């Protein structure tokens, strides 16, 4: 290709210094970007560790409350059963009172 167009590349001291300066600039920008990304990941990791600690505490609290919750659930079930029976009885009384012949 060079032969066809008769193009030659010459490296002068000025162009070499310019290339070197450009390389240093790009390297600095890349290092800053990597540093920012690393800092972002470190902050995220710290937040995840904090969340992990909170989840552990919540799991312990749930384990401590679990027996009380099962008792309360049984009480609610029995209360609901009684309410359903009372509702049926009231429905029957209502129909007897208003629709009796």
Give a description of the structure.
- By secondary structure, this protein is mainly alpha-helical.
- The protein contains 2 helices and no strands.
- The protein has one domain (2-99).
Which keywords apply here?
single chain; 101 residues; mainly alpha
What is the overall pLDDT average?
91
**How do the helices and strands follow one another from N- to C-terminus?**
HH
| Rg from alpha-carbon coordinates | 39 Å
State the end-to-end CA separation.
112 Å
Structural class: mainly alpha
Q: Provide a count of the helices.
A: 2
Provide the domain count.
Answer: 1
How large a portion of the residues is in β-strands, by DSSP E? under 5%
- Helical content, roughly? over 70%
Which stretches are low in confidence, meaning pLDDT under 50 for 5 or more residues running? none
Shape: elongated
Counting DSSP E segments of at least 2 residues, the number of strands comes to 0
